[in-house]
Amino acid sequence: MPEVIYLDNNATTRPAPEVVEAMLPYFNEAWGNPSSMHAFGGHVARPVAEARETVANFLGAERPEEILFEGCATEADNHAILGVAAAWNQPGTIITSRVEHPAVLGPCLRLRELGHNVIEIGVNNEGLFDLEAYEAALAATPGPKLVSVMWANNETGVIFPIRKIAELGKAAGATIHTDAVQAAGKLAINVKDVPVDLLTIAGHKMHAPKGIGVLYVRRGTRIKPLILGGHQERGRRGGTENVPYIIGLAKACKLATAALSDGSETRIARLRDKLEAGLLATCPDSRVNGCRTCRVPNTLNISFEYIEGESVLYHLSDRGICASSGSACAAGSLEPSHVIRAMGVPFTAVHGSIRFSLSRYTTEHEIDITLRHVPEVVAEMRALSPFVKH
After folding, report:
1. Sequence-separated (6 or more) residues with CB below 8 Å from residue 212
2. Residue 36: its pLDDT value, please?
3. CA-CA distance, 337 to 340, in Å (whole number)?
4. How many CB atoms lie within 10 A of CB 86?
5. Cα dist from 19 to 22, 189, 358, whole Å
């Protein structure tokens, strides 16, 4: 089997060795229940409390109690959206974008089925959020409102003006939620400066394991529990705490903080730009999807016209290169990405989009190998394409 070159870090990341090391004692030594009254449980409760404080500091939260540990980011998104709507006790309006992750679009659809008004704001051909349409939607909707807009797009990496979105929403009396899964660890996040009420992150997108997410809930935000059956998380999310994964997430937050200050993201952006420039130069009829000056540093979404992205991915995988056609949660669908369609990408390119997403473990050698193989695969696929004149 060829060497694996992993360029699908927006789907999931390799758990950092330091994270795994921090978790291990909570599998085989300190394995007690932190909710227990005895000393063995208390011995575990203290590190959980310290981890909560670490995550709070990572997000700039005012106090640790604003951090809820959840099973994943999908659960946290669902909790934010469905929990706020449940607290209204009347129909309200949810304002979101057309390019959200399915973890946000899914609960919004459910609320529409239950009689709530759901408004989806569009993006332009660079994937940038339509602020004018958003302001109009805020002005036109009386009653309770929830805004749920992502911080950075998972497919294109495009960054939304979340501070402005939050400020406008708060001025209109809305509760503000942002899915910051693709921003956390790549951009500095400080909820003291950005007036969101709820914010979601996922451990496995920032070198912690799968199975742990966070919902930040600003003090005073009205929200109902989504999971009932226990007093954990101050009665807001039932279920015994996933101690090893909580510890791992806290360690990942510390590593991410260090990476944001040591220039790691600049190095990642340089490698991403090298990959982008090389592919545009060696693959005719290719185009970058999304704003090239307002995106997270690790993400490149590129379309190769006249061919199917799924076929390209299959042949790259045979060469040991792992990439994606978009959201991992929508993988396997033959429909073109809803994000790419919302941007108005031409028909000849909409099916040929590939997402390359790097991490702190990506090397220049891996980018060089990728730049050798991708043009070969694209040329092979175009030789078979009925849309290319031969």
Report:
1. 69, 70, 71, 72, 202, 203, 204, 242, 245, 246, 248, 249
2. 79
3. 5
4. 16
5. 5, 21, 19
> How many helices (DSSP H) and strands (DSSP E) are in the chain?
14, 12
Nearest CA to 199 out of 221, 176, 220 is that of 176
**117-121 and 67-70 as β-strands: parallel, antiparallel, unpaired?**
unpaired
Residue 193 corresponds to which tokens in the numbers above? Answer: 């400066």
d(CA 385, CA 377): 12
Beta bridge partners of 119: 95
Angle between helix axes 162-171 and 131-139 (nearest 10 degrees) is 20
CB atoms within 10 A of CB 192: 9
Three-class DSSP category at 363: coil
Is 329 known to be catalytic? yes
Q: What is the model's pLDDT at position 38?
A: 84
Q: Give the per-residue pLDDT at 43.
A: 82
Q: What is the rounded CA–CA span in Å between residue 180 and residue 153?
A: 9
pLDDT of residue 231: 86
Binned average pLDDT, 10 residues per bin, the chain of 390 residues? 89 98 94 83 89 98 98 98 96 98 98 97 98 97 96 98 98 98 97 98 98 98 94 88 97 97 94 98 96 97 94 96 72 74 92 96 98 97 74
From the candidates 108, 294, 322, 329, give the one annotated as an active-site residue.
329
Displacement of CA 147 from its chain's centroid (Å): 17
Burial class (CB in 10 A: 0-12, 13-18, 19+), 224: middle
Domains, the chain, in order of start with CATH, read 5-14+263-384 (3.90.1150.10), 17-259 (3.40.640.10)
CA–CA–CA angle 59, 199, 69 (5° rounding): 80
